[in-house]
Amino acid sequence: MTSILNGLEAIFPDQRLLCDPAYLAAFESDGLTAFRTKPLAVVIPETDHEVIAVVKWCHDNQVPFVARGSGTSLSGGSLPVADGIVIALNRMNRILHLDPRERVAKVEPGVVNQHVSHAAAPHGLYYAPDPSSQSICTIGGNVAFNSGGAHCLKYGMTSNHVIGCKVVLATGEVVEMGGASVESVGPDFTGLFCGSEGLFGIALEITLRLLPKPQQFHTVLVGYQSLQAAGEAVSAVIDSGLLPGALEIMDALSIEAAEAAVACGYPEGAAAVLIVELEGPEERIRYEREMLERVLSGTDAFAQRVAVDEADRMSIWRGRKSAFSAVGRLSPDFLVQDGVVPRKRLGEALVRIEELSKQSGMRIANVFHAGDGNLHPLIMFDGTEEGALHRAEKVAGELSRLCIEMGGSITGEHGVGMEKRDFMPDMYDAASMDMMARVRRAMDPHWIANPGKMFPGSEAPALSQVGLHPLEQAGVISRE
Amino acid sequence: MSNVEIQPESIEELREVIRLEPRVIPCGNRTKSPLSLIEDCSTVSVRKLSGLIEYEPSEFTFTAWAGSSISEIQSELFSKGQYLPFDPMLCEAGATLGGTIASGLSGPGRFRFGGVRDFLIGINWMEGSGQLIQGGGKVVKNAAGFDFPKFMVGSLGRFGVLVDVTFKVFPKPTATLTRVIQCSSHEDAAQNISDIAAGRWEADAIDYRPDLQQIALRLAGPKEVLAALDQEIQQRWPEGGLLADADAAAYWRQVTEFKWSQIESPMMVKVPINLTTFLKLQADLDANNSIQTHLSVGGNLAWLAVEDPQSIEWVSDLLDTHGLPAILVRVPDFQNPMVDASDANLLADPKLGCWQSNEMLNAVKHAMDPLDKFPGV
Ligand SMILES: Cc1cc2nc3c(=O)[nH]c(=O)nc-3n(C[C@H](O)[C@H](O)[C@H](O)COP(=O)(O)OP(=O)(O)OC[C@H]3O[C@@H](n4cnc5c(N)ncnc54)[C@H](O)[C@@H]3O)c2cc1C
Asked: Which of A103, B9, B202, B374 has its CB 3.0 to 4.6 Å from that of B48, i.e. a possible disulfide?
């Protein structure tokens, strides 16, 4: 054991303080498999006292640390820092308190997203944010990244469902943010903490708001002969005054991939499919489905399928939810992008993406949360080809710039992390970047909490390979 | 404490004022006057920085100057069939967007889709040096950078001057329906609120008046749908009745305009709470008839109407024993914040009850306002 780590031995037993390179290898990367770094050590706390103790130790010794949930970040958020400590939180996975009367749950950070809904289900409640990785990603990671999912337009992102957090800041100070009410007074620190990407400290306890499970869903899959027609259908739905829970589009390439992977039975020959999902009490659904039918019949659709039961609904979603991992069948490697453009410029953005694809000679599949203009272009390439990865990265960069130019954002839900930090100054001017740095320093004076992320300019670890997350390869999760 | 207000008419003028004045407390139309009654501070109102900057109904977003009155903005939204679902407070009294954000006030509609924090997506604010800072963006989904817009909700103007703000909006339901449910006790009411909130009906607002032991339940959506949903609710809770449209509108307006209490010109206190704590607090308040409660947002927010400025200290102590932080948002003559001098002392700090102070708060305040231009937190 390196002598510097001696202090950690007092906090953790051997089996929860990993320094052996063979063990560390499991933690050297996250969902952005392009980057790898070996940390100095990994600790696996089981209580908040242990987390606080290791953060204090890091503070006292000025050793950088990275909190880690399930390591599914797609932007390199949980990538270790060389010579730093990884604090793996998966064992902090207790649901501390679930109060059906107040419709809240207090959880430890390592609780898996879907487990909250499972625990709430007997009370007719659920936890709304549903990233596609929900069967594996943790609430702590969701909070750090303000993660989204397919239902953000109506219900918002993670931060709209977090009402309080107990946090150990990078200084070792333990603070309570928010509380037991959805309302608060004073500056909204809970809101500021959500999406701070692990740069302030570590969430030890998180209080979540639960919603009643919708009584009914009405899920429609519509086939179009062009992407543009699908895009116009989205506008028509929005303009009708309906507020669907989900509005999703897939293009021909992603449909092809999904068919190959899960035989989802989407309309043959479709250049694009649109998934619209309404939810609510049956009386409302009866009314709104008629409205939706009228709207859709005015669009240029050539095929339509309405889910007849829950199994059918799931089969429609299976195609959508598997799309990205499925692209692995069309191409040995790919980069997944995440950007936002104003909804009315979706069409224009897609044309530009097509041009980029032609210019670069790389195929790009598109899957997107059309309701909120959140694009997920998938850049396909063969990593064994000389320079291909760098060309793909260049295209990804162009896409980020395109989103900024159109008045959107470089990330809708995957976070800035390591991957997009260099684009932050294109989105925020120097004074605004400086303000973020000042606040970050107030929370973390030594700059030890997840350094090298969100802010540009730090050393980048070497690129290695790009591809599916090991769990995707195993078919455990798929990405949106 | 001065009643003189500086009203810059452009960003340049605002910048000049901010640079010149040693200490500044920003405000809008001062509908929540106790929040901007600060000694040794120049009061700078952004009320002249007003109007829509961009409104894209198809994007579900608008950007407006922080000094815009909400009622003005709302009429634009309504004309396009959209709205801010959280029932902004004090619109008729003249509340501005900036003031609503800084005071962090949301009305009964917060129950269904979230509060001002959940609909605010972008801001530009001026820090003490006169520099404009951007937080968030203009699209409904954005995960890049720290979420300063949310942080500013409830920040009471202590971190800078909001200049322009971007909100997400939703399609406005075509109809609403309000049913009153008579309860037998506060405990019974709490159970009913909880059952309604967890039910399949998608309640739009659930408020409760402890003095009348009455819940008001609002549904929103197409008229036909509401009537069908209401049938089941009526069967389950037969005690009570439907309010006629005009009465329903008046009921909710009284809540958002702070006119629900029988106390003449009350002081109004905002208390974030939950059902469990409400029951305990209300047991103590029932004994005091100079204080009335309106429970809003499905049991998550209590408004206390307090008759006598002298009682404020008592209220503050009581809230403290229940571990509740609160703010005093309104005093009787809001047109003239120069209330009686002895009372003014009592009202000097709008923070009531149990506030935590920690190093983080001070460190962030210092980081965001290094020149100490704005009052302390
Ligand atoms: C197949 C696949 C599909 C995906 N689909 C979606 C999707 O639909 N929507 C979406 O938004 N994202 C999606 N993601 C991205 C990813 O799942 C989310 O970002 C998720 O929130 C990460 O959770 P995690 O537990 O894996 O966190 P990690 O990757 O371990 O960590 C993420 C970040 O959170 C920080 N962190 C972790 N725990 C804490 C804590 N307790 N306190 C403070 N900081 C902490 C880490 O330091 C890191 O910066 C997908 C990823 C994959 C691989």
From this structure: B9
Domain A1-213+428-459 CATH (choose: 3.40.50.280, 3.30.465.10, 3.40.50.720, 3.40.1190.10): 3.30.465.10
Q: What amino acid occupies position A128? A: A
Of A25, A22, A32, A134, which is closest to residue A78 (Cα–Cα)? A32
- Collapsing DSSP to helix, strand or coil, B9 comes out as coil
Whole-number Å distance between alpha carbons of A38 and A82:
6
Contacts of A444 (CB under 8 A, 6+ apart): A169, A170, A171, A199, A200, A201
CA distances from A100 to A170, A211, B298, B375 (A): 33, 10, 14, 40
Match 């995957």 to its residue by tokens.
Answer: A414
Instruction: Show residues of chain A in contact with B367, CB under 8 Å.
Output: 438-439, 441-442
pLDDT of residue A472: 55
- How far, in Å, is the centroid of ligand 1 from the Cα of A68? 9
- Ligand 1 binding pocket includes A131 (Cβ within 6 Å): yes
The band of B152, judged by pLDDT with boundaries at 50, 70 and 90, is very high
- Are A281 and B106 a contacting pair at CB < 8 A? no
Q: How far apart are CA B100 and CA B69, in angstroms?
A: 10
pLDDT digits (tens, 9 = 90+) for A80-111: 998 899 999 999 999 999 999 999 999 999 99
| Mean of all residue pLDDT scores within chain B | 94
Give B5 or A465, the one with higher predicted confidence. Answer: B5
Ligand 1 atom 19: residue of nearest CA: A73
Q: What is the pTM of this model?
A: 0.95
Closest approach atom of ligand 1 to CA A30: 29
Give the residue whose CA is nearest to atom 15 of ligand 1.
A73
Q: Where does A331-405 sit in CATH, by number?
A: 3.30.1360
CATH fold group of domain A216-325: Alpha-Beta Plaits (3.30.70)
Ligand 1 atom showing the smallest separation from residue A109 Cα: 41
Contact A287 B224 (CB under 8 A): yes
Mapping DSSP to helix (H, G, I), strand (E, B) and coil, where does residue B173 land?
A: coil
Tokens of B285: 């308040």
Q: Whose CA is nearest to atom 23 of ligand 1?
A: A141
% of residues, chain B, pLDDT over 90: 88
> Are A216-325 and A331-405 equal in CATH topology?
no
Long-range contacts of A50-53 (CB under 8 A, 24+ apart): A50/A11, A50/A12, A51/A87, A51/A89, A51/A92, A51/A168, A51/A202, A51/A204, A52/A168, A52/A172, A52/A174, A52/A204, A53/A11
A146 contacts on B by Cβ (under 8 Å): 143, 147
Residue pointed to by tokens 């997107």:
A368
> From ligand 1's centre to the CA of A411, what distance in Å?
13
What rounded mean pLDDT belongs to chain A?
Answer: 92
The amino acid occupying position B293 is: T
3-class state of residue A339 by DSSP? strand
> For tokens 């929540």, what's the residue?
B32
Take atom 37 of ligand 1 and give the residue whose Cα is closest. Answer: A141
If you measure from the C-alpha of residue B253 to the centroid of ligand 1, how many angstroms do you get, rounded to a whole number? 43
pLDDT per residue as tens digits for the range B212-264: 999 999 999 999 999 999 999 999 999 999 999 999 999 999 999 999 999 98
Q: So what's the pLDDT on residue B333?
A: 67
DSSP bridge partners of B96: B69
Q: Looking at the complex, report in whole angstroms how far the Cα of residue B17 sits from the nearest Cα belonging to chain A.
A: 20
Domain positions in chain A: 1-213+428-459, 216-325, 331-405
